[in-house]
């Protein structure tokens, strides 16, 4: 099996490439390194380039016969999508259409898409299943939902088989310590809290402490990065075996509050973490947790690392190993 991983130098994509290599799958990574890192691609063949470059895509698909494509190359910052929606519709929608068109031209019919819970918008219930209304509230979420709709149409018209995997809060790091999370800028809670623990930040901001939750802070569903990779592997196998297209939500099915994450980070790191209290952010629901029953039924998937302590331990191991980023050193 030969797989093209688009965006394989990023956080989730690099963990996927590592897993594919461990499964003895032939892997080619295509990444323009705008937000990913070359040293995060630790196996297979690497091509530096943009997946919106049709000439490059045609060359990539002409040089090697691929069985499937896995797409992790979307732009992902909600705030940036609001101030620069053109970037998100161009990269997330137009470039993905280019990729799909070249794929199909080269007779590649299987596609695994890294989607997001942002397609649902404001939650109407605390447990979000696949039937929850789709009403994204920002350009990032809308761009991802547009791709999901495009995939449905391409499936109906051209026979494309696809898996849309919608996850909530990717977290943690590879237990081996060779891969982890590094975004610039970082916006995810667990790495931000651990950066405060390691001294790279002065503290952590908590946006709202008066939510209708047990401790007043927002509750979110954190899923270990390796569990995400496992779900993508199972979806890929199902498509390779002739299975039908599917859309699945991925999460632990239980949530942890912001304050609980901070307390766990203190416990794991043994460090004091200063908290700065801020006003609520617009559009932050009190509780956002995935119902992953469909993934369990259709893919035979369930999280292997569901507990917050282990997720934070793996992320702390990575933070300690690579805290020299703050000093501009290479990894």
Structure explained in plain terms:
Helix content is 39%, strand content 19%. By secondary structure, the chain is an alpha/beta fold. It folds into 2 domains: 2-171 and 223-250, Rossmann fold, CATH 3.40.50; 189-221 and 253-289 and 301-327, UDP-galactose 4-epimerase, domain 1 (Alpha-Beta Complex), CATH 3.90.25. Strands 3-2-1-4-5-7-12 form a 7-stranded parallel β-sheet, sandwiched between helices. Helix 2 (54-63) runs parallel beside helix 4 (85-105) and helix 6 runs parallel beside helix 8. The model is unreliable at 325-331 (pLDDT under 50).
Secondary-structure-derived class? alpha/beta
Count of separate structural domains: 2
Radius of gyration: 19 Å
Give the helices and strands as they follow along the chain.
Answer: EHEEHEHHEEHEEHEEEHEEHEEHH
Beta content: 15-25%
Name of the top-level CATH class of the largest domain: Alpha Beta
Q: How many DSSP-defined strands?
A: 15
Q: What is the mean pLDDT? A: 92
Principal-axis shape equals globular
What is the helix tally?
Answer: 10
Task: Write the CATH architecture name of the largest domain.
Answer: 3-Layer(aba) Sandwich
Low-confidence stretches: 325-331
Query: Which fold does the CATH topology of the largest domain refer to?
Result: Rossmann fold
């Amino acid at each position: 099996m030969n797989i093209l991983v688009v965006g394989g130098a990023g956080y989730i994509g690099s963990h996927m490439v590592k897993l594919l290599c461990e499964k003895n799958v032939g892997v080619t990574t295509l990444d323009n390194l705008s937000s990913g890192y070359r040293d995060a691609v630790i196996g297979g063949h690497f091509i530096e380039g943009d997946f919106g470059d049709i000439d490059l895509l045609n060359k990539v698909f002409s040089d090697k016969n691929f069985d499937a494509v896995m797409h992790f190359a979307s732009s992902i910052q909600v705030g940036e999508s609001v101030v620069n929606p053109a970037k998100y519709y161009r990269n997330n929608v137009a470039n993905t259409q280019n990729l799909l068109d070249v794929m199909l031209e080269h007779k590649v019919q299987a596609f695994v898409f890294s989607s997001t819970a942002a397609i649902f918008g404001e939650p109407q219930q605390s447990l979000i299943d696949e039937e929850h209304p789709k009403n994204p509230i920002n350009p990032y979420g809308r761009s991802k939902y547009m791709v999901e709709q495009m995939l449905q149409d391409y499936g109906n018209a051209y026979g494309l088989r696809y898996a849309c995997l919608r996850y909530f809060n990717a977290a943690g790091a590879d237990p081996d310590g060779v891969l982890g999370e590094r975004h610039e800028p970082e916006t995810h809670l667990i790495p931000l809290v651990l950066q405060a623990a390691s001294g790279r930040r002065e503290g952590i901001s908590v946006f709202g402490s008066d939510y209708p939750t047990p401790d007043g802070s927002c509750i979110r569903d954190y899923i270990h990065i390796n569990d995400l990779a496992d779900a993508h592997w199972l979806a890929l196998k199902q498509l390779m075996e002739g299975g039908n297209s599917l859309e699945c939500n991925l999460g632990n099915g239980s949530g942890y509050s912001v304050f609980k994450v901070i307390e766990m980070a203190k416990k794991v790191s043994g460090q004091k973490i200063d908290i700065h209290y801020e006003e609520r952010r617009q559009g932050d629901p009190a509780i956002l947790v995935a119902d992953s029953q469909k993934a369990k039924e259709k893919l035979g998937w369930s999280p292997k690392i569901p507990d917050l302590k282990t997720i934070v331990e793996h992320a702390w191991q990575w933070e300690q190993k690579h805290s020299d980023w703050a000093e501009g050193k290479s990894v």
